[in-house]
Design goal:
The structure is a single chain. It is elongated and about 80 Å long. The protein has nine helices and eleven strands. Strands 3, 4, 5, 6, 7, 8, 9, 10 and 11 form a nine-stranded mixed β-sheet that branches. Strands 1-2 form a two-stranded antiparallel sheet. The chain starts with a helix and ends in a 5-residue tail after the last helix. It folds into three domains: about 80 residues, Winged helix-like DNA-binding domain superfamily/Winged helix DNA-binding domain (Arc Repressor Mutant, subunit A), CATH 1.10.10; about 80 residues, D-Maltodextrin-Binding Protein, domain 2 (3-Layer(aba) Sandwich), CATH 3.40.190; about 100 residues, Periplasmic binding protein-like II (D-Maltodextrin-Binding Protein, domain 2).
Length: about 300
């Protein structure tokens, strides 16, 4: 049994046809038949049946088990090939969520430049779900992301980097701008520029309002923290963002939440537990753990 035989078998199961499978791999039909025969001899049981030579192939219970296992093995073979090749790379592939990218990426680039490691860095910014999926698929070496709770995982090693509180942005002309801290009741009937649904700042806003029994008056859903800040600068409402995620214009102030009602965002780095970094990759990942964003 070889990886090639398993590949032939999986496509044969999916297509139900020797002809289609042979065309897929650009081989002859006898080559596909021989691969199936080797697998059936190895396991001592029929894997596929066919009522006549023109009928569609039927997968036996044993064949279904092998198909499920083979698909996982083929994926692992592919990942092993990627990892072996990447072991010789001088690059380290880092992924950032949109929130983490806005807060952390500039500092990461600065730190790697100072340590003369910037040439080793490959970066990508995407949503957290895609980020962790790419990490698990061996397409990234480490992922930096944020969440409202520390993450726990069976297959990922997660390092807690920093916590960043949520805060309110207000125009200097807005009545709330003169407060030293914001209580939930202060947001009653106040127009709010919120982030899109399912974003971390939006989830935090909804959690904050639920906990305090306040119904937010959301007048617009912005696609980025930068747009939230720009709309606040035009005095269209107040914003709810993670502290440090935006560069404040001269007419926008950042106000912390009342300490008893505060919500923290946890900045974290995840690395596959199975990852075996080379010397350069290990150096870069260890450096990431030491970076702190400005207070």
């Amino acid at each position: 049994m070889t990886e090639r035989d398993l590949n032939y078998f999986c496509i044969l199961v999916e297509s139900g046809s020797y002809t289609v499978t042979a065309k897929h791999f650009h081989v002859t039909q006898p080559a596909i038949s021989a691969a199936l025969k080797r697998l059936e001899n190895k396991y001592g049981t029929p894997l596929l049946t066919q009522s006549n030579h023109r009928a569609r192939l039927i997968t036996t219970p044993a064949g279904q088990v092998l198909y499920i296992r083979a698909r996982k093995l083929i994926k692992e073979f592919s990942q092993v090939a990627v990892e072996v090749k990447h072991a010789e790379d001088q690059q380290v592939r880092l992924g950032f969520s949109h929130v983490a990218g806005g807060i952390w990426l500039p500092k990461v680039i600065e730190t790697f430049h100072r340590h003369q490691l910037l040439a080793l860095l490959e970066t990508e910014v995407t949503i957290s779900e895609n980020l962790l999926e790419k990490l698990r698929e061996h397409k990234l070496d480490a992922a930096i992301f944020s969440s409202l709770q520390p993450m726990k995982s069976e297959d990922l090693q997660v390092f807690q980097l920093e916590t960043h509180p949520l805060c309110v942005l207000a125009n200097v002309r807005h009545p709330l701008s003169h407060l030293n801290m914001i209580a939930a009741d202060d947001l009653t009937r106040v127009p709010i520029i919120a982030r899109m649904r399912h974003s971390l700042p939006r989830n935090a806003l909804e959690k904050y309002c639920r906990h305090s029994n306040v119904r937010p008056e959301i007048i617009y859903e912005a696609e980025s923290n930068q747009l939230v800040e720009k709309l606040v600068a035009r005095d269209l409402g107040v914003g709810f963002v993670i502290e440090g995620s935006v560069s404040l214009s001269s007419n926008v102030v950042q106000i912390p939440l009342k300490s008893s009602e505060s919500i923290d965002c946890f900045m974290q780095m995840a690395v596959r537990k199975s990852f075996l970094p080379n010397k350069q990759q290990s150096q870069c990942i260890e450096l990431l753990k030491t970076i702190k964003t400005p207070a």
